[in-house]
Amino acid sequence: MTSEYVPGLEGVVAAQTAISLVDGANGRLVYRGYVIADLAEDMSFEEVAHLFWHGRLPTRSELDALSLELAGSRQLTPAAATTLAALPADTDPMDVLRSVVSVQGVEHRLEKPTIPLAIHATASFPTILATYHRRRRGQAPVPPRADLGHAANYLYMLNAKESAPELVHALNTYLVLLADHGMNASTFTARVIASTESDLASCLVGAIGALKGPAHGGAPSAVMDQLEQIGTADNAEHWMRDARARKVRFMGFGHRVYRTYDPRAKILKAMCERLNPKFYELASRVEETALSILHEEHPERPQATNVEFYSAGVLQAIGLPTDFFPPTFAVARVAGWSAHVLEQSANNRLIRPQSEYTGPEPRKPVPLAERG
Amino acid sequence: MNLPQRQTVVLSTGSLHLRLVPDFSPGLEGVVAAETAVSEVDGANGRLIYRGGYLIEDLAPVASYEEIAYLLWHGELPTESQLDGLRHQMAAARRLNDAGRGALMAMDPASDPMDTLRTVVSAQGATQALTKPTLDEAIPLTAVFPTIVGAAYRRRQGKDVIEPRDELGHAANLLWMMEGKEPAADRTHWVESYLVLLADHGLNASTFTARVIASTQSDLASCVVGAIGALKGPGHGGATFAARTMLDKIGSADNAEKWLHEAHARNERFAGFGHRVYRTYDPRAKILRELAKTAAPELHRIAARTEEVALSILHEAHPERPNATNVDFWASVVLTGAGIPKELFTCVFATSRVSGWTAHVLEALQDLRIIRPASVWIGPAPGRKPLALAKR
Asked: Which listed residue (B74, B264, B275, B315) is catalytic?
């Protein structure tokens, strides 16, 4: 029996999962039973990764072991380092990540996805990005530091110095908030690839490719660009009404799943206010204006600020360049991607949907010489 | 909330009607995930239809790979001058750029060739800024696959990489870059036929992967790299390798009966059998089986006996299921006859399918809606409180 075509598979159940639940009606994001608001401020990214991979929060000794294993897997393979060096210094960082994660995961023969492989891949993302960022600025790479946590070490490798604890904490919270989000397009991509019994690197590389799309992870830089165009809080109303008249989309608004305010956006908004007051002053006014215009146009739709909107201000405060927003999203989401791959592999069935043919009825080809 | 729905009311084009929604169809079996005119797998009638409405058995004997790529991209078969134009464009785009070459040379020569392909295509497709997929990107990307496959093969053998030759067609050039010798016409024909037959096949897992990635408005290289990753799995493109490996283990026609019965008793799956869509003999497998007689007579004998025994065992076990020889089974024999080592089977599959992948991506752009399905929550009830680290 074939079901009707549902564009975007909206509402079509494609998997069973125990990793995360996007409870859109109640505005809750739940990681393995824990509501995100209970995890965001106090958990390290490593603890959340453990939660995803093993299904429970780690004990002290399990956390120490995982931290040690992550720290021990941060180095790039020689092939990965050489590939990174071969890419032009003005390459889109998402293309760098896609290519170098692909090399870093190269094998001599097909391996089944495992937790050690997930740890290895997750550990390498910050190294790839920091190495590339320093290279494009003509700086030597900074070797990772095993005594630093995942977030702290990422910033250390980018800047060659330790960042202030509040910035490390902010990055950690961002990574925790973005680590998983139900059956989003990149996670679904990873699961489709896993369903063919392919390897973990293939799943992650596909997911990076999906995250790159502006309709998915590519949006944070768009938020920044729009805020820059608006310029000042006082200009928001004028600019946005004018933009709307020209059918310009407001960046950082709209989500298919949440019917209330995105719980991650709420936490990021509060962080923005603390860490990036200048951004906050402009962004909060833009948000207010956008929501009011959107409400006028579609009163039936819910409050629609999405996670990208305030992420931009947090990542800017941390000191990341705008083009590093999407790949830093990947630094967080790889924990979720790999957990979904493991979950898919544990109870697998090839994901092979149907299509509906819209072409002409069968007919005979005309020989080459008689065409045209 | 993502809870299973037993009944939903769906409003479509103004009419209100009721439909039943399955709780969860594992593997999205029977779920329509796209509308397409690129190809149609008519499983009930055992037909594969390529864009424009052409049946695969009408195209395979007469069309070159370039003609098929043109058909999948444009929706119609090319005239002679259009075909010439495409051949020139492809021949001119066979060389790797600096990033692609750099990535290729960085790889350990012993790497899985699919990993080399995945990586080099990613590096070759790296750009400064996001670009929308276009046909002008699809053509060079398709053209460069044989170059990477040939180079991966040469490097595995510790040999120098060979430069492409512009005057050779796509299939002949692949063999040339593997071997550094101009291939015999019959071998080129077998490879060409394979490339034509495998160029597209409805919404298979790798094509679906490419379309999911395209739905986020990502770039063409990202879509193709993801598709390569999906094709690598033994549940998909890796199956041709598995079929050949099984034939190697069986070794002789006389051994087929004993080997297959023992494997069946061990609950081992037979490689090269079973397909979700076809209810009759796969039309591609039929064509390849015929080609295999001349391409690899010795292996054809083993394979024919293996097929006979396997189908009879499968029929006894599941009399309700249809004839289940799939394309991978006979493809493994034809590719062997064409001189392709089994380590390259999946790469050569990708070399064919990339025209289909890119055609699907370009088609998907016409009506972009992000593919973001739902999931059913099977985890602990939401709202439990985390214990502080020291108390765990």
From this structure: B275
